[in-house]
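Write out the 3D structure for:
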Amino acid sequence: MSLLQLDGVTKHFGDFVANEDVDLRVDAGEVVGLIGANGAGKTTAIRQGLGLLRPTSGTVEHFGRPPSRDTRRRIGYVPQNLGLWPDLTVAENLRFAAAAYGSEVGNLDGELGEASDRPAGSLSLGLQRRAAFAAALQHSPDLLVLDEPTSGVDALARSRLWDRILDRAESGVGVLVTTHAMDEAGQCDRLVVLHRGKVVARGSEPDIVADTDVIEVEARPWDRVFEALDSAGLSVALKGTTVRVLTADEHRVKQVLSSAGIETGTRRVEATLEETMVAIEKAR
């Protein structure tokens, strides 16, 4: 039995289709990443999955049942806006969340514990995210739903939050997380890619990138190579100081470089997840 199941979920807002025929599931002990560009429909899908927004069509189940107040008590949720009351202290926010779920107030330690008597709105974004995470975990949920949990925080704070996410999954909690960071997406067990409200790819990271190649250019100086290819209208990126071109037409790449007086070798290599996402966007 899945902890969360969306089958054929579609959501219309007037004439606008926010989600179309979305299938998604989260099982115990796995981290599922919901990824896509801004406006792809990730948050709408999550809100329907939580039972906060009624689908136009399709079905949602929590733990094999329709969403209800009882099933939502088994879910921990951190929205993009964190769900904290900025004028309440950290401790007051945790007491409020504990009362809503009928649980005990969680213990705070370290830097967050030292800030427990400060208004949540006065904290750094990293500490606010840690407070929101603590509030979502204190009732020991079986399913954790995180909407952009590390947005706007530094690398160390991101790493600490992901350590906690992975620890929860190892303990058997199912996790659904949205992220724009492809390095974070790589830590997920499975990925579901949304584009304009539709699922366009799913599977592990290797599954998703398997059919996408880029042309890697072996030439120096890289800036001259980059400029020549970019001026020709090709989709160019850098990986370190290596120029990579998102195209299946290796002959075209060589032709552009030759016309610019650049003699070099090229090779076809597997795309990164970020490059694959760009390819998906361009193909649709």
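The domain at 4-208 is CATH 3.40.50.300 (Rossmann fold).
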